Amino acid sequence: MTKPAIKLAAPDLQHLTGDIFVAAGMPEAAAAKVAEVLVWANLRGADSHGVQRIPRYVELIDDGAMNPRPAMRVAFETPAASLIEADRAAGPVAMSFATTEAVRKARGSGIGLALVRQTTHTAAQGYYTAMAARDGMAALSGSCSSPNMIYYGARAAGVSTSPLSIAVPGAARDPLVLDMATGVVAMGKIVHARRTGQRLEPGWAVDAEGKPTTDPARAALPLPLGGPKGSGLSLMIECIASLITANPLLADTFEGKPEGEKHRQNAFLIAIDIARFCDLDLFQDNVRRLVAGLKSLPRQPDVDEVLMPGERGSRMLARRSRDGIPIPAATWSELGRVARRFGLSMPTNADGSWTAQ
What we know:
Elements: E1 6-8, H1 10-23, H2 28-43, H3 54-63, E2 73-78, E3 81-85, H4 91-109, E4 111-119, H5 125-133, E5 137-144, E6 149-150, E7 157-159, E8 164-168, E9 176-180, H6 187-196, E10 205-206, E11 212-213, E12 221-222, H7 228-243, H8 250-254, E13 265-273, H9 280-295, H10 311-323, E14 325-327, H11 329-341, E15 355-356
């Protein structure tokens, strides 16, 4: 029987996460940013990109793949674009810096591009596009890594699950955010299923021999979303994020080069200053009209409500902010081992107990 999850208040979880990364060698500001981005994902129900990543991030620091104190810099820039040398920074640190750069460029030129070379796992892309949208921008971001997803027609990993996010300012304060993987599911969701004992849906993944499976313990690779569409989209993200930055990931792996064995990621973020082209209030009102029109459409018999991108996450945010974030027992155990390694105490409720989900 699967052990019940632990529930923890978001501030406590964020504090613990920040303390772990400070102990692992990050400056406090960088550790706080990583903690904020990971817990942001947990609050919205994207647990595959939340604190379950902590042990892996610490492992990357131990291996030298993630640099806890990078010398990030803008290696090259034009009036509308910046190429950021991330120096193996934690993805949330590099991508937050890139978002700020892209927004800065957009303020001056109407549109801004930030290319990020040589970062590590970028976490939830929606955090960065939402960050730009709150600054009045329309934003698009993507990232890529070593092969971890089937390329359509092949039986082995050929591309990455390359996440893609698009966000715009919403009618209210919350941006409208699309955040998706180019796989049917992200690899992290398969890992999360292993930890919670959940079966996978048919068509999500294949085993090491390329055969379909619903067993999370046997699942080796996710399948591309929409077959050739998902794998083709991932390929093109590699072309933009990696080839333009002269840091190829997939080809190095295929050719057996030493760099191809290392954990590396590249990314990009594009920001468009809406106010340079259209009154921002008018834009947001048109978003409201568009959403209202979609929600008023006749529904399929088995559908209770027509949902917008990010709407389930926003509702989950409200619920988990009130009730706490459920952490699977296996994940909590791993976090405990990491904390003990650094001499940190795990947070507890006032009476020393935990609230099971």
